[in-house]
Amino acid sequence: MVRERISGQALTVIRLAGLLVVIAITVVIFINRDQVKNLEALGIPGVFLVSIIANASVFLPVPGVVFTSAMGAVFNPAWVALAAGAGAAIGELSGYLAGFSGRAVIKESERYRRLTEWMGKYGEVTILFLAFVPNPAFDLAGITAGVLKMPVRRFLFWCFIGKTLKMLLFAYFGSTLVNWLG
């Protein structure tokens, strides 16, 4: 296994580098958040890209659901939701990576043990629920999943389902609102 071949010091350096990359991505996205609106001209692929960008920022708000609502009024809301949900799930890998990178600084404690048990028992449900409900706490869920080494495929699957369902509601809301006003 590759992990066994990497020394503890090298793994710590890799994790710190990953954390720095996540921080850099977050800062760049936040600084350029107004430029993201230019991607709407790309249609459904633009929705996908905006969703990746909006969800890749950790703890700094980028209004991805507002964009999804607006695009749901322009394009088929189901396609908008699928593109936005897939982009959101991929974007949330930044939080997962931050958690994986930060694992080296976590100390074994009672709190850590309880968190490990909770995510072990209810990890998928937690990811699904927090991905569906609009809230800033999802970054913590992604970080925790990374810290606890939840398999990336499992994290992405449940994140995709929750984010797509949420984006479906926002896309149809935008579509319905425009139809009602027009």
Q: Can you walk through the features of this model?
A:
The chain is mainly α and 182 residues long. The chain has one domain. Helix content is 77%, strand content 0%. It has nine helices and no strands. It has helices at residues 2-5, 8-31, 44-56, 64-74, 77-91, 93-102, 110-132, 138-147, 152-181. The longest helix has 30 residues, at 152-181. The mean pLDDT is 77.
Number of helices, counting only DSSP H or I runs of 4 residues or more: 9
* Helical content (DSSP H or I, runs of 4+): over 70%
Mean pLDDT, to the nearest integer, reads 77
* Number of DSSP strand runs: 0
Class derived from helix and strand content: mainly alpha
What percent strand? under 5%
- The overall number of domains is 1
Provide the gyration radius in Å. 18 Å
What is the distance, rounded to the nearest whole angstrom, between the alpha carbons of the first and last residues? Answer: 59 Å
> What is the helix/strand order?
HHHHHHHHH
Anisotropy-based shape: elongated
Main β sheet profile: none
pLDDT below 50 for ≥5 consecutive residues: which ranges?
A: none
